Amino acid sequence: MVMRLLLLAAPLVGCTDVPEQYQILDSPVVPFSELFAPADTIHLDPSIIVGQISFLDVNQEGNFLVTDGVGRSVDLFSSSGKHIRTYSVPECLPDVGNFHPYSSRFMGKGYVVTMTWQGSVVVFSTDGHCVGATRRLPDPSLGFCPSGDSIFFLSLPLPMREAKKHNTIVVYSPELHRLREIPVEQPKFPALNVGRLGIRGRNIDCFGDGPYYTYLGSMDAVPVHFGAELTQQRAEFYEDRPRDISPKKMSDEEETAEWNRYITTDAVFALDNQTRMVMYRNLDDQWQPAGLKDARIRRGISVASNVGQFPPRSTIFSFVPIAAGYGYTYGRGANELLSDGDVGNPFILRYRFIPPQGTNE
Could you tell me where the DSSP H helices lie in the chain? Predict the structure, then answer.
């Protein structure tokens, strides 16, 4: 594998001693089976109807936290798929109208954090009691990740006319007390990123060395806290977007076409505490897997170790991953057909991660 060393000006992102050299590691494409192996299929309890798994989180015990954007609910299921409880945001915020959950995540062993489309945030204890709640955060955000006893919210990219030197990650306690903010870099393509953040709630994830975040057009996820040497990976299928989209008013069709013209970075997932999985869409047609008829569900994935345990590798998914954690990634299967002829909940498909051999050295 070829390693390239590029000299780039690193932005200020929460520390003063910022390295001036990025180590860029090539991430060659390998077959899916070299990185992931089918593990099992989970049947969700049909006593609870899930309209859509719009966001999924998994904890160390293998329990599932399902955010249902259609049924507008947040439900906890056991590792075997048995329903445990429903978390009621309206119960914590009774004056919130038109409740519509956006994403929900486990926070350690004691909490669950839920954000709505309207910007409301609620923190529950795992047994369902309200710990903290707000109708709207003062810093607009559509992505967060919990780590330890803190919640990290990535602020929304601002319109170009309001551009400031830095975006921020704002840190809150479980009771939703504002603790501090961390400056992070502006997106390379400001107009492209206004109002768009890829897969809902997946523009940030937390690892052992802190949060990593992405923008549309990012080559790789960026760590908030730089170490002594910053290593980034470049997937074999990745192509630099040559320009930002026009800030001029366009029709929805024109804007979508311009957005999809080049590769975009959709998400970052924590495969485990030290391994990031970055997802891309709008790949060139040469990367279409054999037998996949619908190119819209094709995703490029690049996997890298935050601590150099193995060399980066990329692959092509023929499905859109909906969660990752503790050495597994998860996909959404077809709806289960029940014995009485009714249609049940979607299957959850689990795949085990196979770390590549070797190191970055």
Answer: 32-35, 89-92, 190-193, 252-259
CB 132 within 8 A of CB 120: no
- Stated pTM of the model: 0.90
Average pLDDT over the chain, rounded to an integer: 86
For residue 242, what is the DSSP state?
A: -
φ, ψ of residue 132 to 5 degrees: the values are -155, 150
| Distance between CA atoms of residues 31 and 19, nearest Å | 34
Angstrom distance (rounded) from CA 198 to CA 298: 14
Beta-bridge partners for 86: 75
Q: Give, in order, the Cα–Cα distances in Å from 73 to each of 53, 106, 230, 268.
A: 10, 15, 40, 24
Give the HSE-up count for residue 115: Cα atoms under 13 Å, Cβ half-sphere.
25
What tokens appear for 37 in the block?
A: 């192996």
Residue 255: CB atoms within 10 Å? 16
**What is the Cα–Cα distance from 301 to 258, expressed in whole angstroms?**
22
Find all residues with CB under 8 Å of 301, minimum gap 6, and list them: 35, 277, 278, 279, 280, 314, 315, 316, 317, 321
Provide, for the chain, the percentages of residues in helix, strand and coil under a 3-state DSSP scheme, each rounded to the nearest 5: 10, 45, 50
User: Which residues, including other chains, have CB under 8 Å from residue 29's CB and lie 6 or more apart?
Assistant: 235, 236, 237, 287, 313, 314, 315, 316
Do residues 89 and 122 make contact, with C-beta atoms less than 8 angstroms apart?
Answer: yes
More reliable by pLDDT, 55 or 98: 55
What is the spatial distance between Cα 231 and Cα 276, in angstroms, rounded to a whole number? 12
Sheet holding 150-155, edge to edge: 141-147, 150-155, 167-172, 178-184
Where helices occur in 177-234 by DSSP H, the ranges are 190-193
Q: What is the pLDDT of residue 15?
A: 37
Q: Which residue, 194, 198, 233, is CA-closest to 356?
A: 233
Each residue of 161-173: b (16+ CB within 10 Å) or e? eeeeebbbbbbbe
Cα–Cα dist 123/66, whole Å: 15
Most confident of 38-42, 186-190, 197-201: 38-42
* Contact indicator for 141, 132 with CB cutoff of 8 Å: no
Residue that has been written with the tokens 């919990």 in this structure: 146
